[in-house]
Amino acid sequence: MAFLVILLCFGLAGGVVGRIKGSSFFIWFLVSFCIPFIGLACALLYRWDNDELRRECPGCGKVVKLHDAICTSCGTELDFPETAIASEAQVHAARAERAAAARAHAEQR
Ligand SMILES: [Zn+2]
C-alpha cells in the first residue's frame, strides 16, 4: 500500500513537471507512475515544449511544433518550413514586456 502511494507521488511529480514544460500531464503521470525514478528523471530531462518554435499546418491551419513531421490534427505530412512562428515562451516574454512598458508609461503620467 505504501508503495502505491510512493508511485502516485512519482506520477504526480512527473505529471506536474511535464505540464510545466508544456507537455501532457497525463502522459508524464503514466510514465513516472509506471517507471518511478527513471520516468521522473525523463520528465525532468525532457525538452521544454514551450521553447520550441512553431509553424502552421498548411492542411488545417493548426499551429504545431516545428519539429513535428506530421500534423497531430489532420495527419498532413509536414516539410521543414522556411518560416517559423515564435515559441510560446517567446510570445509570453514579449507580452510581459509590453505589459511592463505600458505600466511604466501609465506611472509617468
Ligand atoms: Zn493539419
Helix content: 40-55%
Shape: flat
Give the termini distance in whole angstroms. Answer: 63 Å
Rg = 19 Å
Features:
109 residues; mainly alpha; 2 domains; two-stranded antiparallel ribbon; 4 helices; 2 strands; flat; binds zinc ion
Structure commentary:
The chain has 109 residues and is mostly helical. The protein folds into 2 domains: 1-46; 50-109, no CATH class. The protein is built from 4 helices and 2 strands. Helix 1 (2-20) runs antiparallel to helix 2. The N and C termini lie far apart (63 Å). The relative contact order is 0.11.
In short:
The protein has helices spanning 2-20, 25-34, 38-45, 88-108, and strands at residues 54-56, 63-65. By secondary structure, the protein is mainly α. The chain has two domains: 1-46; 50-109, no CATH class.
List the helices and strands and how they pair.
Layout lengths: L1 H19 L4 H10 L3 H8 L8 E3 L6 E3 L22 H21 L1
Antiparallel strand pairs: 1-2
The structure holds zinc ion.
Zinc ion binds next to loops.
